[in-house]
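Side project, low priority. Logging it here so it doesn't get lost.
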Amino acid sequence: MKRFVIIKLTVLPETSLKYWGPKPGMTRLFYLLDDNMDLKKPLTFSEQIDRLKQHNLVIDDENFALKILSEVNYYRFTGYLLQYRKAPDDSDLRTPVKFIEIYKLYKFDEIIRDLLRLYIEKVEVFCRCQISYIFSLIKCINPPYDQHYDRNNFYSKSVFDKVMDNFDNQKNYYSDSLIMQHHQKAYGNKMPLWVIVEFLSLSKLSQLYNSMYISDK
């Protein structure tokens, strides 16, 4: 809902301008249109079904639809309706579409994602292992074996610094972890690289790898 904002201004003698018209001491009201809309009202699952029907989605089994909407976020589910809309900014569908058909699209997407995730995870685990293993055997061979903390051992020092700053945040986030507590007490809060990589996101792991010298990759 669009709203009007009313601003009341009183003209002071020292700020009165000839082209304003009003004399000092007079009051003017200015009406400004607020273009920000209210957020959408939360809907119960039953209300979500009614809303979908209004948009031309055919629901033959409401109990089944209710079950699915209680398991899958309404916003996520309706994302599969975008290709059937009359226009990008119009939630109404061009022609009637069955709920079950949209659910089949969602399930197909879910199966593909699960299949890809299975192999992506294997690649990710392999990369974490190889990056930490190879770098440690090249650089961390002399006591105290913490050369992976030395930015001079990395080609892109600025990228390395960003990765380590992120890791510091992760340490704070996982401060109650037994792994963190153990290394804090036993090793002065330092960790081997093969432990560090397990706390880095895949993007940060990639950045760490890219910050290394070619000879260390």
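Brief comment: The chain has eight helices and six strands.
Revisit when time allows.
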